[in-house]
Amino acid sequence: MTQDKEMKLWGGRFTKQPEEWVDEFSASIPFDQKLADEDVTGSIAHATMLGKCGIISLEEADKIIAGLRILQEKAKKGELVYTVQNEDIHLNMEKFLHDEIGETAGKLHTARSRNDQVATDAHLYLKNQSEEILELIQTLQSVLLDLAKKHVYTIIPGYTHLQRAQPVSLAHHFLAYFWMLERDKERLSDAMKRVCMSPLGAGALAGTTFPIDRHFVMEQLGFTSVYENSLDAVSDRDFMLEFHSHASIIMMHLSRLSEELIMWCSEEFQFIEFDDTYSTGSSIMPQKKNPDMAELVRGKTGRVYGNLMAMLTVMKGLPLAYNKDLQEDKEGLFDTVETMKGCLSIMAGMLKTMTIHEAVLKEKVENDFSTATELADYLAVKGLPFREAHEVVGKIVLYAIQNKMLLRDIPLEKYQEMHPSFDTDLYEIITPYAAVNRRNSYGGTGFDAVQAALKKAEATLQHS
Ligand code: ARG
Q: What is the pLDDT of residues 348-366, one digit of tens each?
């Protein structure tokens, strides 16, 4: 029991203070101090509105705002000493404001509750963070685009089922990720509409008796709409769930790319090599150069998915309106934001500095059967139904495997024995270059199609 402690800001109704460890258990200040800037920003808008609406005097509003600005500076410099006795960022700030300007500080919380305050802070945080994340995605896209521009004519094996399928331009492969990220940006931007909703003025749950101006506060905070319903405003976390979902999809994309890069730098593939600055060694095996950064991006994807599941689970049984369970929304959100920002940056650095082994790629694509489709198409063009052509070429591939040959090693007589429509021009169309070059259907890997795609990607990046 800690009877001798300073009274709580909500202590009027109580005769005893909570146990110290109860304070510690319920406090969110160890993590929500991250919202210091947003908290002060919300309070400045609220105080401005209280003054404008005559709920407090303009002098009082000015005094409060001046005090808040001092706190904002102190918070930035790390000069504020938070305490768990003051529970959360809101009560800590109120206490600091009191220390800064005295009794007038007590007027700031007029027509406001921590319930609409914390929701406001979270909306502001996600607005700022979404903007930063959009920038980071954009940077990663430009790295992919630069790589694509350099590698239009670098041909790599294209896979399905992780089996060699058809050769593709490496630029086409990079651009696939470019467009995934473009949709990721679209999703985050679409969600901004709901991130930029103002809960402030909803009070604890039922609105307020004071003549407040919620739309004024909305504008002050750079939000674009207000919650229509006070119960909804204080207990909605959909906007966070949307962010968690979008973050999970972004991480899934980064994880797929990581997985490919990890394979590509293995001894088995040798398509790329990460720069030393993005690699680590083994403490026992001197020869090792590990793609730890890509593995971490892949691994951290699990954390981000976990945060989505945690939040969905926190929300599923909550009656209206605010419940303390909602305090559990913050750590996962911060973690997802920080994790994703780190992953986006590291991925851009990794890609920018890696070496692409063009000679190895050339050697690989020239020594497999991945141009077999060309032969089937060749027969189909000559009038054979594609199914039949497929069957004929399947037999040719089988013959080649059994005789340890590649398609180009099989003599024309043998081809003609398999089907009379074959002619000498077949040897030209089964080169990887020709296979890629001829696939100019819209969105395909043909060099012309890829050049057009590069232009489109470039324009898209410039307009976003
Ligand atoms: N620290 C709380 C949270 O993060 C702030 C809101 C507290 N409201 C309350 N009525 N206890 O959710």
A: 999 999 999 999 999 999 9
- Ligand 1: centre distance to CA 327 (Å): 6
Parallel, antiparallel or unpaired: strands 197-198 and 225-226: parallel
Question: Please, are residues 50 and 58 in contact by the beta-carbon 8 Å criterion?
Answer: no
Task: Check residue 226 and report its DSSP letter.
Answer: E
State the distance from the centre of ligand 1 to the C-alpha of 439, rounded, in angstroms: 59
Mutate which of 112, 114, 115 for ligand 1? The one with the most ligand atoms within 8 Å of its CB, which is 114
Tokens describing residue 1: 């029991």
Query: What's the distance, Cα to Cα, between the start and end of the chain in Å?
Result: 58
d(CA 289, CA 375): 41
* Helix, strand, coil fractions of the chain, as percent rounded to 5: 65, 5, 30
Question: Tokens at residue 16, please?
Answer: 């005893």
pLDDT in tens, 227-251: 999 999 999 999 999 999 999 999 9
Pocket flag, ligand 1, residue 88 (CB < 6 Å):
yes
